[in-house]
């Protein structure tokens, strides 16, 4: 959502590249409603385009 809010365009790769999916057990869906509510809050909040606890915190650290 942050990328979309920052103006990054979506490109559809359907029929342009092969897609492989590894089988895995289904995740527990007990929190599905809560997760969807969090997603929709981000979709509707156009002002958030950067993660608060993101990669930037590592940029000034010396190796």
Would you kindly provide a written description of the structure presented here, covering whatever features stand out?
- The protein has two helices and no strands.
- It is mainly alpha-helical.
- The chain has helices spanning 2-5, 32-44.
- Helix content is 27%, strand content 0%.
- The model has no long low-confidence stretch (mean pLDDT 83).
- It has one domain.
- Total DSSP E strands: 0
Mean pLDDT: 83
Radius of gyration: 17 Å
Q: How many separate domains make up the residues?
A: 1
SSE pattern: HH
Low-pLDDT stretches: none
Shape: extended
Approximately how much beta-strand content do the residues carry? under 5%
Which bin fits the share of residues in helices?
Answer: 25-40%
What is the straight-line distance between the termini?
A: 31 Å
- Biggest sheet, open or closed, and with what strands and sense? none
What is the number of helices?
2
SS-derived structural category: mainly alpha
Q: In terms of topology, how is this protein built?
A:
Blueprint: H1 2-5, H2 32-44
Key words describing this protein structure:
single chain, mainly alpha
Task: Summarize this entry quickly.
This protein is an all-alpha fold. The chain has helices at residues 2-5, 32-44.
């Amino acid at each position: 959502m942050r990328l979309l809010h920052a103006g990054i365009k979506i490109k559809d790769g359907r029929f342009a590249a092969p897609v492989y999916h590894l089988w895995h057990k289904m995740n527990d869906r007990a929190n599905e409603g809560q997760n969807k509510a969090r997603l929709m809050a981000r979709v509707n909040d156009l002002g958030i385009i950067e993660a608060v606890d993101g990669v930037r915190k590592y940029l000034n650290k010396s190796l």
